[in-house]
Design brief:
The chain has about 150 residues and is mainly alpha-helical. Strands 1-2 form a two-stranded parallel ribbon. It contains 4 helices and 2 strands; from the N terminus they run αβααβα. Keywords: Hydrolase, Membrane, Transmembrane, Transmembrane helix.
Length: about 150
C-alpha cells in the first residue's frame, strides 16, 4: 500500500495577516473610491445588435435591403421623418439611456450610428457608438438575406 504525501507550507501568521489586511484595504479602496478624487471617469455605451438597436447604420449601407426609410419609421422621434431606426421612435438602447439619465443622473449621451459620415474618432470616445445593424446576426449567413447582389 502506498500512502499519499501532502506537502504543507505554513506561512508565519504575521505574513498571512499582512496579506489579508492589504487585500481588505484594496477591496475597500476600490469599492468606495478612496483616493480617486482626481480621477475622472466617463461612462459611455458601445451597442451591438440588430434592427431592435439600429439607429441608422443601415441607411449608410448602399447594398442593404433592410432600410428603415418608410414614412412611419421615426414619426415619434425628432422631426417626424424617417431616421434609419426600425421603430417609430426610441430603440431599446435609447430607453436604457433614458432610464440611466433619470434613474441615477449619469447623463449618458445617445450613441450615434457608427457609419454616420459626420462621426469623428473623438465622438466615439466621448459618447460611445452604436454598431447595431438591421439584419445583423452572429452567423455570416444572417446578413446575406438582406443584401442586394445587383449593382
Amino acid at each position: 500500500m502506498t500512502s499519499a504525501h501532502t506537502l504543507v507550507v505554513r506561512l508565519p501568521l504575521e505574513t498571512n495577516m499582512k496579506f489579508h489586511l492589504r487585500l481588505v484595504v484594496i477591496i475597500i479602496g476600490i469599492t468606495f473610491g478612496i483616493g480617486l478624487e482626481g480621477c475622472q471617469c466617463k461612462v459611455v455605451q458601445f451597442i451591438f445588435g440588430d434592427s431592435l438597436s439600429d439607429v441608422g447604420n443601415n441607411k449608410y449601407l448602399s447594398k442593404s435591403l433592410a432600410q428603415a426609410s418608410l414614412p412611419w419609421y421615426g414619426i415619434d422621434l425628432g422631426n417626424g421623418l424617417p431616421n434609419g431606426r426600425f421603430s417609430n421612435g426610441r430603440t431599446v438602447a435609447d430607453i436604457i439611456v433614458m432610464f440611466t439619465r433619470s434613474g441615477d443622473n449619469m447623463g449618458l449621451p445617445r450613441p450615434p450610428a457608427f457609419l454616420d459620415p459626420s462621426l469623428a474618432e473623438d465622438d466615439i470616445l466621448e459618447s460611445g457608438v452604436n454598431y447595431a445593424s438591421g439584419g445583423g446576426g452572429i452567423l455570416n449567413e444572417t446578413g446575406s438575406y438582406f443584401v442586394s447582389c445587383k449593382e
